[in-house]
Amino acid sequence: MSRLGKKPILIPEKVKVSITDEEIKVEGPKGVMIKKLPDDLNFVIEEDKIKISPKVQRKNISALWGLWASLVKNMILGVTEGFEKKLEIQGVGYRASVEGKNLKLEVGYTKPVLMEIPEGIEVKVEKNIITISGVDKEKVGQFAANVRKVREPDPYKGKGIRYFGEVIKLKPGKKAVASK
What's the CA angle centered on 59, arms 54 and 63, to 5 degrees? Predict the structure, then answer.
């Protein structure tokens, strides 16, 4: 039995949820999210709660049950509050800007890196902070990871793109080794 899956999911007043045989649709003040449902689980709306239960008992059903409970909670949270990731650029001459539907990163390569901003995601750049926000937690997190991957933080100087507040443990260079 899944601990997360057993708990009913509360639906706030501002949110409208509709469930068909194939998909779940969550509408709220920030937007609309639609996901295709798995065949192994039952989704039922009772009053202002969503209850999830397995149709069949099999070995890994509790993992799927808990996963979908979390996904539905994140859908509801996304359409009410939204999700946000902040990235920080560190390095001399490193900068970012938004040009139309592209994020332009100048991070030490010979040419700037252009990344297309996915639909449903909003990107803002203020000085050396990139703010990625949207309704879908999965899309926001994946785009933030892709941006960070363009120039990961250097373990010797700390230059690169990192999550805001991320601490990079710097390695000692050659001078520290030579002094022994």
Answer: 60
Claim to verify: residue 90 and residue 70 sit in the same structural domain: no
- Residues 13 and 67 grouped into a single domain: yes
The per-residue pLDDT string of the chain (180 residues; one tens digit each, 9 = 90 and over) reads: 678 888 999 999 999 999 998 999 999 999 999 999 998 899 999 989 999 999 888 888 888 999 999 999 999 999 999 999 999 999 999 999 999 999 999 999 999 999 999 999 999 999 999 999 999 999 999 999 999 999 999 999 999 999 999 999 999 888 766 666
Q: How many other CB atoms sit within 10 Å of the CB of residue 55?
A: 11
Domain of 96 in residue numbering reads as 83-163
Question: Contact at 8 Å (CB) between 21 and 36?
Answer: no
Residues 41 and 112 in one domain: no
3-class DSSP state of 69: helix
User: pTM of the full predicted structure?
Assistant: 0.89
DSSP 8-state code for residue 135 = S
